[in-house]
Write a structure and sequence with these properties.
Order of helices and strands: EEEH
Number of domains: 1
Number of helices: 1
Radius of gyration: 13 Å
Distance between the termini: 31 Å
Shape: globular
CATH topology: Double Stranded RNA Binding Domain
CATH class: Alpha Beta
Length: 59
């Protein structure tokens, strides 16, 4: 099962990664957050918005 990981970035901000069951990173938060709660809010937004996401092919 995939897991979200919150971590401290080298610039002191918080970030998140979504890792698959085999440990591969499959998504990252595109921005740094000044608080851990900010990172948690970013994860919540992905969880909320992604189930209905469509695929757009821009090739």
């Amino acid at each position: 099962m995939a897991k979200f990981h919150i971590y401290k970035r080298t610039d002191g901000q918080f970030g998140w990664r979504l890792k698959s069951a085999n440990g591969q990173t499959i998504a990252i938060g595109g921005e740094g957050f000044t608080s851990k709660d900010g990172a948690k809010n970013g994860i919540a937004a992905v969880k909320r918005d992604a189930p209905g996401a469509t695929v757009q092919d821009d090739t």
